[in-house]
Amino acid sequence: MYERDPKASDVLLSVRGLKKYFPIKSGLTKKTVGYIKAVDGLNFDIKSGKTFGLVGESGCGKSTTGRTLLRLLEPTEGEVIFNGENILTYDRARLRQLRTEMQIIFQDPYSSLNSRMTVGEIVGEALLEHGMVKSKKELHERVVSIIEKCGLSGYHMKRYPHEFSGGQRQRICIARALALRPKFVVCDEAVSALDVSIQSHVINLLKTLQDDMNLTYLFISHDLGIVKYISDNIGVMYLGRIAEMAEKNALFDHPMHPYTQALLSAIPKSHPLDKKEHIILQGDMPSPANPPSGCGFHTRCPKAMAICSREIPVFNAVGENHYCACHLYNP
Prior knowledge:
- Keywords: ATP-binding, Nucleotide-binding, Transport.
- InterPro entries: AAA+_ATPase (IPR003593), ABC_transp_ATP-bind (IPR050319), ABC_transporter-like_ATP-bd (IPR003439), ABC_transporter-like_CS (IPR017871), Oligopep_ABC_C (IPR013563), P-loop_NTPase (IPR027417).
- One of its GO terms (molecular function) is ATP binding.
- This is ATP-binding cassette domain-containing protein.
- This protein has 331 residues and is an alpha/beta fold.
- Helix content is 28%, strand content 25%.
- It is built from nine helices and twelve strands.
- Strands 6-7-8-3-9-10-12-11 form an eight-stranded mixed beta sheet, with helices on both faces. It has a four-stranded antiparallel beta sheet with strand order 2-1-4-5.
- Strand 9 (233-238) and strand 10 form a beta hairpin.
- Helix 3 packs across helix 4 (136-149), helix 4 (136-149) crosses helix 5 (166-178) and helix 5 (166-178) packs parallel to helix 6 (196-213).
- The model has no long low-confidence stretch (mean pLDDT 91).
């Protein structure tokens, strides 16, 4: 069972039993007839100044997790302990104050920017809203400073989002998120909408900013190669739950869960002569509105046993800081 201490001095964010269910309405009376279990009981910790990578197939609940942590979506159940306090108990006033410490970088840099505002207005809006600058001169200096840190120039302040490339627009989004000097940032598929040639530049920028500003990231992605490069610890998510979690090298060198093994087998080898067994999963991921009984992965698992369809596996330690939810390792 995962029982790490959420009050440990190096843990900035601790998640316990986090759930987010979306009601399914039907009929003229809009009666609730079921729930989409997008996030179904997550437990993990993120250390200060580190990056926790969250990977999985589309629809597994990664983005919902990130939005729920920030309370952009209200959770159904659980705890999110940030700086030693459960932020799910915060009222609107305290939540507003929390926005200066927790930010998000969205997947699509164009749709997340207001096309009628200049870059200077976009980046400086939150500074004005939270009263973090006392004059127009200070606002200008703060905005220029952060956009230059993100690889843009001061003269870009007067331009509009449509005048930039995709990579530049994502830099604007990063500057907007970091303008308030937050401690924790959710990177929600932050590079998946960019060309491959630009992705590496943005990833390196995120790493540089993390070192310079002591940032803590939740990095959400479906690209295992990028996640391995930027993350310190990785959680593999399937159907609303974490199937396996470990330090990145341990996860890649010794994957334990059959789902993790299948994902890693799909990564192309860098050399054409390297031989590798590909694990082909049958069928699609079940719907979170009607998940299978027992282990959610048993309908596709090549190692499934009779118990897998009856009982949900416990999230057990299978090594040092290495956890896996699989009956193969349950006592």
